[in-house]
Amino acid sequence: MDFSVLTEHAGEIGSGFLMTLWTWIGGVALALAAGLVIAVIQLSAGPWIRGALRCYIEVIRATPFLVQLFLLYYGGPSFGLSLSPMAAGLIGLGLYGSVYFAEIFRTGFTSIPQGQIEAAQMLGLTSRQIVCRVQIPQMLVLILPALVNFTTILGKETPVLSIITVPELTFVLTGVGAETFAYVETLLALCVGYFILAELCSRLGQWLERRASLYLTQGVRTPRTLKPQETAA
Amino acid sequence: MSVLPLTKNGHEVMLEARGMSKRFGEHTVLRDISLSIQRSEVVCLIGPSGSGKSTLLRSLAFLEAYDDGEVFVEGELLGYDRAQGGRRVISRPARLREVRRNMGMVFQQFNLWPHMSVAENVMEALIRGRRLSRAKARKLALETLEKVGLVDKADAWPNRLSGGQQQRVAIARSLAMSPAIMLFDEPTSALDPELVGEVLQVMKHLAEEGMTMVVVTHEMGFAAQVADRVVFLDGGQIVEQGAPAKLFREPSSPRLAQFLKNYLERNSLFDDRPAANGTCL
Ligand SMILES: Nc1ncnc2c1ncn2[C@@H]1O[C@H](COP(=O)(O)OP(=O)(O)O)[C@@H](O)[C@H]1O
Ligand SMILES: [Mg+2]
């Protein structure tokens, strides 16, 4: 085997790696935001909207990401939606991931006792304040492992973007492989690249989980309030 | 309080239900409830388990949407807006918050927020709802905690406190919003017996200060001492109501008589009467 092809194409491979990282982060951010919105709407909306969202979730879950991406990128123009490969890739990842994140958030929301929410309502907090101040801070600790887990899974879906010519790691390395016939070397390099990304993600997740559980078990955090003597002054 | 004439207008009547009903599916839980609570009145709701006490209290706060009838809070219709053509629609959240702005509620399970310290629990609504600065909210929180005897626990976490202390924090959290009416749903039922007293003591103080209170309770001693009026609920209906002395000494309905007899039997240390069926162990 001859790994010199990799060093010869180091520049391209590096930018492919960064592109993968970027699409991953962008896709996860979109999916998290959309997922949270879906979960919140599911909690509060009427039966019609809830039903529509349920359908959306089922359709996305029941179809392969590759097919969704094709439909978005190649089918989009027939619906007046022409997207660049990058935009289609990000939106595709966002849509695909949103339903899984929505389910995770929904589990989180239902884990907070209804009584805490009623207490907040009786104190005049708005539903938005209740979500942001009462529900999310508590449920985050519970759902973080699931969020990190699906973030890793979504990262492993990013190679699909190569099929619509997004110049990410898989696109670059398979290109190099085809050009130089160094198939094995480039595929091994791919494995290493995704391993590094997954490892980064899991480290970050572990760190966050530690922080979050300390936050709830109240080891690190003293309440962010003034000391009694400060207010007495 | 009960000597005042019952004025239906002005601000004497703080909370009123008129012909209110509530169903869960096919099951009618409250039937035609009419109840009027005046300023500074303390009303205790008693009745067997499942008689609809919680549902009534929750309907008075619109935590349950009642079906028929009306609930008025200081003269304002709670939970519904009159729409065109006499129909009514559920109020928008902002309107609901407005109508119940002077209402506080204390729950059996305390319902403190475990991720906030005691002081933060009390400060939260002051900061978000009343728009006080952190420093002002903190000051008011400490003053209110002082009232329930827990100012030294301000920076503790709720789950490090005893049940009685948690419930007092919950009362302080409600009280800090300076409500005009406080609703209590079995505030001492989740407590170990030796912790019941401290919570009842706080509630007694509130009553003495003239707070309007509706209390669902199994503490007949509290009802006898503190209530201006006791309302006996059974099968989703108000069966009997009146001053505690009268109601407890000479109940006029057999259902209340039975309820009180059961209560006394459960709560007497030594049964000085022979068992009804004559058997002894
Ligand atoms: N959310 C609900 N859904 C269906 N039935 C309910 C609900 N809440 C209460 N009930 C029923 O209403 C009746 C009265 O309950 P509740 O008001 O809790 O009684 P109490 O507080 O006097 O014990 C009971 O038969 C109970 O099963
Ligand atoms: Mg009850």
Can you describe what's shown?
The complex is a heterodimer of chains A (233) and B (281). Chain A contains 10 helices and no strands. By secondary structure, chain A is mainly alpha-helical. Chain A has a single domain, classed as Orthogonal Bundle (MetI-like fold). Chain A is flat. Chain A starts with a helix and ends with a helix. With 281 residues, chain B is of the alpha/beta class. Chain B contains 9 helices and 12 strands. Chain B is globular, with a radius of gyration of 20 Å. Chain B starts with 12 loop residues before the first strand and ends in a 14-residue tail after the last helix. The N terminus and C terminus of chain B are likely disordered. At the A-B interface, helix 6, helix 7 and helix 10 of A face strand 8, helix 3, helix 4 and helix 5 of B. The structure holds adenosine-5'-diphosphate and magnesium ion.
Radius of gyration of CA atoms of chain B, rounded to a whole number: 20 Å
The CATH H-level homologous superfamily of chain A: MetI-like
| Rg of chain A (C-alpha, Å) | 22 Å
Q: How large is the share of residues in beta strands of chain A?
A: under 5%
Structural class of chain A: mainly alpha
Distance between the termini of chain B: 49 Å
Q: What is the multimeric organization of the chains shown?
A: heterodimer
Order of helices and strands of chain B: EEEHEEEEHEHHHEHEHEEHH
Side by side, the strands of the main sheet of chain B go 8-9-10-3-11-12
Average pLDDT reading of chain A: 88
- Strand tally of chain A is 0
Number of helices of chain A: 10
In whole angstroms, the N-to-C terminal distance of chain A is 75 Å
CATH classification class of chain A: Mainly Alpha
Into which percent range does the helicity of residues of chain A fall? over 70%
Structural class of chain B: alpha/beta
